[in-house]
Amino acid sequence: MDIRQATIDDLLGMQNANLLNLPENYTFKYYLYHALTWPELSFVAVDPRGRIVGYILAKMDEDSTDEVIGHVTSISVLRPYRRLGLANKLMKQSQEAMVAHYKASKITLHVRKSNRAAISLYRDTLGFEVFTMEKGYYADNEDAYGMRYIFPQAS
Ligand code: ACO
């Protein structure tokens, strides 16, 4: 499986994977906004025939004034391709790009409290920590953990 930077041509495939994998969905315009504004930060995993089997959609935090913070809007991997290390690789590529292109000092994301797989990926594999809990964050009222990773060179 190849991991490469996402292009405009990949956005429909990313949106399709997102619709299959997660209840948090976005308009095509929002994908386009990511790709045009932060083209270095989103990546796709593709199979040998070029089909998108995983993606990370990432951005820089536009509200933060005192710190440069990267943010993962969404990451997912199609079911048959899970536990192959793809999400780990997608996250690492995006993290590297956040530091290289924007000098990010940390990265944040939201995750459902019940999402054991994703929490394990973030906390146990990638070294994120929970820094906040947002009650009723999701449309169905589930709580979210706010998680963050502080880049070692920034601490
Ligand atoms: N149960 C427990 N731990 C898990 C699981 C699981 N099902 N999946 C991954 N992990 C942990 C393990 O520590 C794993 O390492 P190991 O396989 O050596 O034990 C580590 O994460 C790395 O796993 P990857 O293979 O890189 O993860 P994968 O490619 O399978 O993708 C993901 C993980 C993205 C959570 C996938 O399960 C998925 O797409 N789920 C549905 C969508 C989703 O929940 N996305 C995250 C929403 S939050 C957000 O987008 C900001």
From TrEMBL:
GO CC entries: NatA complex
An example Gene Ontology molecular-function term: protein N-terminal-serine acetyltransferase activity
Domain N-acetyltransferase as annotated: residue spans: 1-152
Keywords of this entry: Acyltransferase, Transferase
TM region positions: none
Family: Belongs to the acetyltransferase family. ARD1 subfamily.
Protein name from the UniProt record: N-terminal acetyltransferase A complex catalytic subunit Ard1
Protein's organism: Tremella mesenterica
